[in-house]
Amino acid sequence: MSYTGEGPELHDTAPGEEEHEGVGGYVIGLGLATLLTAVSFFVAGTTLVWQPSIPVALVVLAIAQMGVHLVFFLHITTGPDNTNNVMALAFGVLIVLLVLGGSLWIMARMNANMAPMPPTMHMPR
Amino acid sequence: MLLGKLTWDAIPLNQPIPLVAAGVVGVVIVAVLIWVTVKGYVPYLWKEWITSVDHKRIGVMYCVLALVMLVRGFIDAIMMRSQQAIAFHAQGYLPPEHFNQIFSAHGTLMIFFVAMPFVIGLMNFAVPLQLGARDVAFPTLNSVGFWLTATGALLVNISLVVGEFARTGWLPFPPLSELKYSPGVGVDYYLWSLLISGVGTLVAGINLVTTVLKIHAPGMTYLRMPMFCWTTLASNLLIVAAFPVLTATLVMLTLDRYLGFHFFTNEAGGNMMMFMNLIWIWGHPEVYILILPCFGVYSEVVSTFSHKPLFGYRSMVMATMVICLLSFMVWLHHFFTMGAGADVNAVFGITSAIIAVPTGVKIFNWLFTMYGGRVTFSVPMLWAIAFMVTFVIGGMTGVLLAVPPADFLLHNSLFLVAHFHNVIIGGVLFGAFAGYEYWFPKAFGFKLHEGLGKASFWCWVVGFYVAWMPGYVLGLEGMTRRMQHYDVPEWRPWLIVAEGGAVIILAGIVLQVAQIFVSIRQRAALRDEIGDPWDGRSLEWATPSPPPAFNYAVLPTIEGEEPYWDIKQLARERLTLRDEPAYGDIEMPRNSPTGFVSAFFATFLGFAMIWHIWWLAGLAAFGAFATFVVFAWRDEDEYIIPADEVARIDRANRSARSAVLKRLAAMQVAQ
């Protein structure tokens, strides 16, 4: 997207674009993402670890996956020209936490408050 | 097989009302098309409007779409008011299944295809001008966003003739909206029009966020941006955060209906309350997406017509961003009665009451802006004043509804309906009209007729109060919303009064249409010669009216909060313009049919999915993808406007402005 005009405050490049790191970063990212995906599939079916730890492991792997995407594909860094991206990420994380946390809390409280159903009204699940 | 579920039965030949309505609309559309073709306007429309990637043109097209859909939505409204005025101990003239479609279509159209396009249109038009920018960040994407929104509007209107619209309300609550209880195509029309236009809105949001954050004139720091740019930023941040939630929720319902999933069904572990939860996670930010840009319009209007800088600019910025954040913490107040319990309800009740505080800050800032100013009561200012009074009433009833015990009594009653009409008409629509009157001369080079504008204003305001204040009474008398008929004698007088209000609003709309025609006929007398008809303060008034494609011949350098006001004061003191700048060539993005073509395919995609015409859906999806590929591999995306042309356009405006300064000088000499 071009922007014609002069002056020091006009940046025409997307964040990360000026670094020209080539495909190297993307290859590392792809490798890490593939590894994390493969490990997730492995963990989901394995009997090698304590079973209740599997969901926790999957959550950890999923969050690591997000981190890989953000760093290697979306080029989120903490550099000074990256303030907008970091702010956007922070806003996004806050909204996701509000939405997920709020939903879990609301639905859990609703379930807790549901009147116990008599067996005659039992619904097929 | 070839046409999926589509047969001749889909055309409602046995129902006179939709058929006649569709016939009239069809005749009007065909007449307009013939007139445009005969007059030879097609190439002009194609080159200058349909394929335009100019943010000003796209903004105008958004507003035109909104105004047309406002008429359609209002026809639905007055039909409902008439039905309720006569359906006392009677069936009225609308059968229940038709009445249900009308209230569903009214809500869907008014929110998604009137309020949304109107505010997005105003933001598109004014924000780059106010920022001192030549264009938005993603011009072609912007055009795609507009045309996808138009596709959604088209699909809703096609449902009038082919098939039916949803009967499930403006938000299709399951399990009613599931296949089992709504087997027809109505809900599918709703889903596909919103899935497609939702993408358009998201695209518009991304474009505007990026524009505000990245594209400004030199020196336009965040705290020098006009208030409208701040509210645009907040509103579009909310679009980017909330619209994916809407799309995901509707995709889940679509999967339920098309592929037998069970996200929100009664059976197989589905939970319809999760739909309420998810849809309102989008739904509450949505109301702030609509109102925040209007707060920005009021800020501009109140400051301009009070001839004072905005009072408390920084507190206004703060209030805007606090509302932006808090709007994501209140969604449960739409379903207090769901049964999440007292602790959950208390938390969301308190956050809902807190969000009124920054809004109150804004109201006081506008009042203090007016205080001590020389207020000019032009039409945009009248809308702003009417807003302040009306919105405070609507806000108070909102705070009342935020109290869970009160909400248990008023939930789903006409009190609630009156409340949200009070804030959406009194806040969003009045703001959109204020912006429309305010920026019209900038867009077209002549003002709208003042007398007709005032007449229409009074009809709208009086009509609104007459139509909706009875709603509060009816709600307290226990009338629930969406009633096709009733047998409580106490309600009838109020419903007849409300019908009268709708008729007064109709007069306001007729006057608005007349205002457009009269203004076009008298455009020579209403001409805005210099580009600054209101003695404005922000940067957009530094451009000619209408602004050239490149907005600014030379990008302005910003040194304060009111750059244009400072320039103007200096010129008035010295009685001369600043020296002519050195003009250069300007690169601008080429027009592109990408938006129109992809929306063309999206229309067929939506229609084919609604009627289960799978081959057409596949073809249309392929066409849309091919359009994207062609656009992505384009070679030339820019053209050059030579310096001579830029100079010619800018000199014309400079000479108009010099003439004004010369008259000013002559007057001073005469004194």
TrEMBL record, chain A:
GO cellular component annotations of the record: cytochrome o ubiquinol oxidase complex; plasma membrane
Query: GO molecular-function annotation terms?
Result: cytochrome bo3 ubiquinol oxidase activity; proton transmembrane transporter activity
Name the residues that span the membrane: 23-44, 56-76, 88-108
Q: Per the annotation, which location comes first and is thus the protein's main one?
A: membrane
Its annotated function is as follows: Cytochrome bo(3) ubiquinol terminal oxidase is the component of the aerobic respiratory chain of E.coli that predominates when cells are grown at high aeration. Has proton pump activity across the membrane in addition to electron transfer, pumping 2 protons/electron.
Please give the subunit comment from the record: Heterooctamer of two A chains, two B chains, two C chains and two D chains.
Instruction: Report what the protein is called.
Output: Cytochrome bo(3) ubiquinol oxidase subunit 4
Source organism: Rhodopila globiformis
Its taxonomic path starts at: Bacteria, Pseudomonadati, Pseudomonadota, Alphaproteobacteria, Acetobacterales
